[in-house]
Amino acid sequence: MRISTVSPAPGLATILLENTPALAIWADGFVLPLAEAARRHGAGAPPSCIRAALTDWDRWCDLLEYARNDGVGDTGWLAETAVDFLPAITDPPTIYCAATNYHDHIREMRSTKTFAAPRTPMYFLVPPASLAGHRGATARPDGCERLDWEVELAVIIGREADRIPAAQAHRVIAGYTVANDLSLRDFAHRDDTPFFPDRLAMKSYAGCTPLGPAIVPAECVPDPMNLELALSVNGERRQGSTTANMVFSIAEQIEYLSRIVPLRAGDVILTGTPAGTAAAWDGAYLSPGDTVVAEIRGVGRLETRISH
Questions:
Q1: DSSP notation for 126-156
Q2: Which pLDDT tens digit goes with each residue over 11-57?
Q3: Rounded to 5 degrees, what angle do the CA atoms 215, 169, 47 make?
Q4: pTM value?
Q5: Hey, how many other C-beta atoms are within 10 angstroms of the C-beta on 78?
Q6: Rounded Cα gap, residues 56 and 239, in angstroms
Q7: By C-alpha distance, which of 28, 13, 33, 4 is closest to 217?
């Protein structure tokens, strides 16, 4: 299942190169090590990671288009199926995850519970250790029978943002990537405490936050509030919506978060998921051997395999 035949814009990915994390240009199903692209275009020594690249983001974004114009798939380019991807950013300072932020998802949840749209954005955090890369395997933890999926647009913050008004929020966004907020519904509620849900147990197991394949520069995504999102399990479409269905826009989310705490370069904001999670499919949760594809038009296609 693909939502569009239009290729996403090129982006910066993090891959394993000779067993060492390295940046690479990702475009049209191929990757070119950033060191090789920099050598060809006289760009100097490349950064070692995304957070280092953010200090001179425009320079490295320019290199993306230069390299693409050389001919994707030519000498030096590697098929993406031949490399191992790490999370698009491996060490974000903080990962903020929006909850209840799509109107269609709220309507869907109303079928079994009483929900109204929140008055202000609501978030939980997951640790960077929960991240996984494109085409990676995520193990279903012991005791989990209700492993759910959630396609989300992820925003990468490019510089410090303290009390940023919504009208200026676009200035602090470096780029976008695809996320799948895998959720262990079995572990959400506990009978030994009145305080719930247990977000840490439900959302933060290793590999439960696939992120990638690459970070597409913000300038290549002219309207992030009008992007198609889709998710499939074993080729069957389960989610399909658009970012226009968000309750709180990306700009409003940045304004809200930056009033609580300064956002830092490399922070990731998962902006919420639309309707179509497993509850809407008669509890058809993920099982070992399943392949999940989360896709956002113009941003990328993120594949995850569920393992034992």
A1: E-GGGEE-TTEEEEPPTT---EE--EEEEEE
A2: 999 999 999 999 999 999 999 999 999 999 999 999 999 999 999 99
A3: 35
A4: 0.94
A5: 15
A6: 36
A7: 13
